[in-house]
Specification:
The protein is mainly beta. The chain has one helix and 24 strands. The strands form seven sheets. Strands 3-4-5-6 form a four-stranded antiparallel sheet, with helices on one face. Strands 7-8-9-10 form a four-stranded antiparallel sheet, with no helix packed on it. The longest helix is centred in the first third of the chain and has 13 residues. The radius of gyration is 19 Å and the shape is globular. The two termini are 15 Å apart.
């Protein structure tokens, strides 16, 4: 995800999200329709080039700026459905991509104020579960973590340019929960562990990936989030955060005193030069 430079502003905004219940007002033909939704659960958040915070929740899409909600959207306004699973801002096309539980993607064009559907993943027949779990941008491509692997789109055409359903030695169709790309290194958090590859290699070949699981020292095979911080690969499960150090996974030392804490994940978008936000 895109790095957000102002951590304090984001934290303030997130606090407001947890206490705010908003509404959307829209017109349909000559009849007024009101859609009352809740923004208590935020599933994805990112920052656009004008410093607007965009988020998707169980109550729809919203834009937040200068301590207030400036836009809110629901299916009444053209969204595919209310509860997006994740989102990302794509600066090259000034649009918000929203993923959904069934693999559908909405593209909201900020300038044109309209939604377009991207249906390729939702139409996949080989796998029953198709949820969009994460987006990652790199070098003109959008990498999408799904319940059956990784799908890559070309941003200019928004056509599929590649897909990886067999990530190294992990089972084909293993769910991918998170993707982080650092330079040309792609790191994935999956249901079976962490997989690391180089984008310059042929990632269709099993040997192009380094796979790590519980036998490699991970606290769990179910890795919900990954990132790179201070030149270390970090991975989180619900029980702990570990770092890859000299080829081995070890408990992330700054958190060694926090025993019994349940972690939801490492929030890649909220990394500054000297801090990483954990949730």
């Amino acid at each position: 995800m895109r790095r957000i430079s102002c951590l304090s502003s984001l934290l303030t905004s997130l606090f407001l999200l947890f206490v705010y219940t908003g509404y959307v007002y829209a017109q349909a033909q000559e009849t007024d329709w009101a859609s009352i939704t809740s923004y208590n659960t935020v599933n994805g958040i990112d920052l656009s080039m004008d410093n607007t915070i965009w988020g998707v929740s169980n109550g729809g899409l919203f834009a937040f700026q200068d301590q207030e909600f400036i836009h809110t959207f629901t299916p009444v306004d053209g969204m595919y459905r209310l509860d997006g699973s994740t989102l990302i801002y794509i600066e090259e096309i000034n649009s918000i991509a929203i993923g959904y539980i069934d693999g559908m993607i909405d593209l909201y064009n900020i300038e044109e104020d309209g939604f377009d559907r991207v249906e390729d993943i939702s139409r996949v027949q080989a796998f029953t579960s198709k949820q969009i779990n994460d987006f990652e941008l790199h070098d003109g491509s959008l990498y999408i973590a799904t319940e059956f692997g990784i799908v890559v789109y070309d941003i200019d055409t928004f056509l599929v340019s590649n897909s990886y359903t067999k990530i190294g030695r992990f089972d084909r169709g293993t769910p991918v929960f998170d993707i982080h790309i650092d330079n040309e290194i792609i790191i994935t958090g999956t249901q079976q562990g962490v997989a690391v590859g180089n984008l310059n290699d042929n990632l269709d070949i099993e040997a192009s990936w380094a796979n790590y699981d519980e036998s490699s020292g991970l606290p769990s095979g179910n890795i919900e989030s990954v990132t790179v911080f201070n030149d270390q690969v970090l991975a989180s499960s619900s029980s702990s955060v570990v770092a890859l150090t000299n080829g081995a996974w070890q408990e992330y030392s700054p958190l060694s005193n926090y025993s019994g804490v349940t972690f939801k994940g490492i929030t890649n978008g909220n990394i500054t030069d000297d801090r990483v936000l954990l949730s």
